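So, does this match?
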Amino acid sequence: MLYADSYHNVWFAISGPLGGPVYYLKNGELINYNPCLGIKTAISEDNDGAIWFTYPLLPSVPPSDGGAFRCFIEQDTSFNFNADNSCLSRNWNYTIYNDSYGTMWFGTDQGVCRHIKGGWNTLTVENGDLKEEDEIFSLFENSKGIICVGSRNGVSWYDGHWEYYKFWKVWPGFGWTNIKFMMEDHEDFLWLNVSGSLRKYKDTNFDDENYTGISLQGSGLKGNINSILEDRNYNRWYGLSDGLIRLDSYWNVYTTKDSSIVNNCVYTILEDKSGKIWVGTDGGISIYENQEWKQNFTVGNSGLGNNIVYSIYEDRREMLWFGTSYGISKYDGTEWIVFNPGNSNFRGGSVQAIIQDSSGAMWFGSDGGISRLDDEIWSNFNTQNSSLLSNNVKTIIEDSKNKWLWFGTPKGLTQFKGDNLPPNTLIIQKPDRTYGVSVPRFTFSGKDNLTVVDELLYSWAIKIINSELTDSDWSWFSGESFIETSPLSNGTWTFYVKSRDKFGNIDPTPDSCTFTIDITQPSTVIDYPAQNDTISQIIHITGYAFDDSPIKDFDYFNIFYGKGTAARSITEWDTLVFKDTTEIRGDTLAIWNTEGLRGTYHLKLFAQDTLGHQSQDTVGVYIVDVIEKIKNKDGGYVEDFSDNIQVYIPPNSLPENIEIKISLVSDLIPENENNQFRNFSSLAYDIMPSSLILEKPGTLSITYNDSNLVNIADEKKLSIFKYKNEKNDWMLIGGAANVNENKITTAINQLGRYGLFENLSDGGKLSISNINCQPRVFSPNGNMFDTKTAISFELGKASDVTIKIYNTAGRLIRVLMENEPKIFGNTVVDWDGKDEQGDVCVTGLYIVTIQAGDKMENKTVVVLNK
């Protein structure tokens, strides 16, 4: 096996029964390097220059555990990874691959594992990286890319390859303490604050003879030096605890006594891109421009969050950031924004360091750890959720070579090597492929190598299928992992979600799911019968039961009926149709036999689709025994199918062609104080429309049976009564009882409710009135005319009645009744146009005589045979 690394070394793996040695050829010299036993199955190099070997488990060789081996040959350091001390799923490893992100991938006999580049790294005295003290005060990278670290007891510097920790060197003879800041001037001299005194060094030859001491005694100030700045004109500024010094050709001292500076204790100095000098003090901010003090900012006269300003930074958008003793203040030249634990997700306190990294994110070091602000999203790091050695972060730099961040703390250095691997996003809960609600819900999560799940941020978008997804469609990133969208219309939609880790890496392959919204209810319409229709016998219920939603998901329809005047009050429904799966569009939904049903009923059509959407239509109908359309010019008979009731309507007695409806009245109890004069037979009918008045008298015949005579003492006294008013009062109409046919007939002038009663009253004064014959012209042969005429009259008092028919010559033709007792009220007797011998009378005029006691009346009729 051969492999050439980035240092031009060539590696050889020699095979053998128990594995073999590894050699590498460096500058023509073959060097034996065999750090681990076992057969080497792969060799590779990571982005940091480390060489990796994989080797399988060899049971016959106890020291060979199998796994992966990583080494730096220049540093003579190495580490063995196996299933016990790493995420390797198995010690049988066969191959290695280094991807474009710098991630090392390992193929094992039980899957694939990866070793991720980046993340946190700690440098301390204990782990051999720092040689002096762990307490770090300052960090600086000079123009040659050397990282300088100022600690309590000296200065360390690093100019080697990352992770080559042996390249750390301690400068001999350095007995200085508290290297609080460092600065490089335009001549590449490095300035150090060494225990309150200033020294400058050329290059990296740090020793007791290679520096120049800088004295500030000429300024007259004696305070501690907190900061130093060289401006664009090469003037040097010194911030002290008792004033500010600007050194050009002369000493220029600024204190509150002789200048407009806001406070004498100066912590930090910054020159912005326009050349203004910003001075952070213990009492606010002062601005120096064009040889004079221009302005002061304090809590009292501006939006500054706190007067104690420890750090100032200008970002690439020329925004100024101020680290204070409690939070951060941001100034854009016009407006201030304050971030502190009370009003934002910033979780620090006293802010001592500020930088903007190469990606544009802002980093803040405070006594509460590290805070990162990127695209208005805060991320906070501390000793609990990162490898930070201490929550007191005094200084931060980003190196120019690798763009790694360095954090100085009292317990050592922490490096953040960055995280260039994006997280993975997964939709956990999503709607079914067909969803019946307009507001779908989604739950999602993610995985990342350095950011815990609870700290991932998510952005989502939802688009109608096949429409273009643009940047403006995405939501802002937030920590919410559950969303409920705004109401969506019918159609097929795609939901997308992507996650972002703490370091701004965004999942380039958002997870998505496609689903169809169907919020359309089935359509249900009962066309016939319509609301308030009167129906009888067998009817065809017609209408619609279908679903026109994007998904053809009609399930079934039911039809129910129930008795009651209001659908909502009906508690018991009978089933007419149950779960018919056929869609109906304007056709017959069901056939309903209403025989035996009378009164007000409601029909309910109910439909449901497979998503559970439901709809219904309800109509109220009135069920009667019979319905007959009567033409005014012809008149006619209306009778039920059992011949229990018959109504005759004479020709030309209606205002127009009308539907006549008859319905048996059930459960009628006609009781009031007037009922002492009659007994109810249990038969009553509604003849509708009840308000219709006939222009000519009609006839009503009611047939009864023995079950109707339970409460009747004298069948011959049966009479027809008409319902009079809502007080349950009835008015005598009369009637002629035919006990042989169990029928009683009477004349009527108005439709309405009629009942059969035993009349217990004899009436008043005997009289015969309201004589009528309908029709006046009839034909016993049935030639275009009725075959009989109804002779009606009204008695004022019960009496024996005789009815005779004469021709115009005075000859007796027929005796219809003789001395038959009749009750008072209306009586109807039919004549069929025949004589005593049963022969049809000839065409002509005939006289009808009615005699009751000493009273007699007559009426003429015409027999017309053609």
